[in-house]
Amino acid sequence: MDQQVTYQTPLRLFWWKGVPNFGDALSRIVVEHVSGRTVEHSGVGGAQICAVGSILQIVRRKFAEGGKHRPWIWGSGLLHHVPRDFLKHVDIALLRGPVTASLLGLKPKAFGDPGLLIANALGDRPERGDVIGLVPHHTQLDDPQIRALVDADPRLQLIDVRDDAETVCRAIGACAHVCASSLHGLVTADAYGVPSTWMDPGEQSHFKYHDYAASIGRAMITPLAWKDIPSQFKTLTNTQPLPHADGIALAQEALRDSFPAPLRATTVSGVN
Asked: 162: exposed, middle or buried (C-beta count within 10 Å: 0-12, 13-18, 19+)?
């Protein structure tokens, strides 16, 4: 009979841990789900794989002149242009989006942010409620304007991206609509099929948002100002199917198909 082979050592994964942020923590959950292996955090230099996040500029700094091994890149993106010298020292399974690919001079046919698999990775889906979840970027959590919106209207729920990743994801999945300046607030909403609106991310570059949106064919041109949420309630509570659902499904398929085979827990025929 076929039997799953269990690796004796965890898969070494790099994700950014500069501040508590559920978006970066999604990487471990999703990689464990797809690989069938346990995962441990690693510095970028010792990682076997890099996944969720705008982390390729960090990878480039470490691997511009090579390293002791070749890490896999699976769904990662850039924050800005970087030299391409590191590409010959890494193996690219998938990139987050076509904007990242263009800056790297690459022409892949498929893209995907691994966060799109989080609903499948966590299993049971929360019951959908009628609240509008506000998911600010971690730099905006103490913004008095956002806090005032929540205090003024019980229909609004502040979701803190510094909380445990599973808690944040389930809170997003239970919303009727999500307003997010956190990129993975938007990604997670898409994973759960929850309508979402891109909010003004303040000083954050728009690069990563456009990169992600282009990967799934999502129309995401200009973010909404936080102060405009009350005037947009009728639009935000309109529960229509996601117009980019087909793009999400294609990205999810690309993510599953492209995960590096050498890093998966394997099944061996004839093992008892």
From this structure: exposed
